Amino acid sequence: MNESIRRRGALQWLAAAGLATQFPAMAQPANWPSKPLRWIVPYPAGGTPDSTSRSVGEQVARILGTSVVVENRPGGSGLIGVRAMTAQPADNHTLVYLSSGHVTLAAMPAPFDLLREVRLVTRISNSPFVLAVNAESPYQTAGDLVKAIQARPGTLTFGTAGQGSPAHMAVEYMTEALPGLSATHIPYKGAVESANALLGKQIDFTISVLGALLPNIQGGKLRALAVTTPARLPALPNVPTLAEAGVPGYQYSAWGGMAMHKDTLDAIVQRMHQVLAEACATEAVRAHVQRNAAIMDVTDSPRAFVAAVEKEIVNERRVVKRLGLTG
After folding, report:
1. 266-280 and 48-64 are packed helices; what angle lies between their axes, rounded to 10 degrees?
2. What does the pLDDT average to over 152-180?
3. Which of 71, 91, 106, 235 is most deeply packed, by most CB within 10 A?
């Protein structure tokens, strides 16, 4: 036998042995999946979480050779859908779509413990946000807008997808970075309604998910002043980041990801992570995410997802306490 082949085989055996020691109960049940997967989406049909779930679900079904049944359970800021899973015994076949909004819920003084009530599997994607005004607004740059807010504290208005929504938190993080910045929050039922209010000049500005604003930015009806990502976006190459525009260290995005019942077998959680990563690597899913102006962002492991969410909850609690949000 060739020596390099023999060494490679030995290394593979050692890696497998180490993995077995780290996860002694990782053997996947031989008959899993034994029935269709139930995929709960805690948001209305037709929105980005729903369409993303269906796109990823199609690939998961193909990989596992089973069917995936998507079930929309909107309401309660995303909590009703989670409860639809947690209220039932674990069956190793149920998933729920989560978003950054669930982190905000977990940071509130309410009976919802994200890290204990579900098993986080993986983040799927990140959606960047954009600071925008109406195209006829007098504010040509983010600096112009900030100066106007500082000159008239509490006078200018901003719209979001609701109290405690990712869009709301995005603005609040900006005001934290620039002490003394104060504007009036106008909550709407969703990102579309907030965008329509900006188009109708009912509010002065918004920081909203890029996918909801991009068509009207490209159509010349809205003006993008800055993006919330660490680097400029290919979709808006001439629009600076908020950090470049004078908000030091600022970055924000909203993620979407998957979780399972808290009592799901470890081996199933690990296998589901592998399957979701494979599904998200397909051209069909990547194209779908790109069409929604989002960025594919699959975590390396369930543990990595948990670690990231733990840090987010700590940051979110500070803002939630300052705003007095109670759920």
Report:
1. 110
2. 89
3. 106
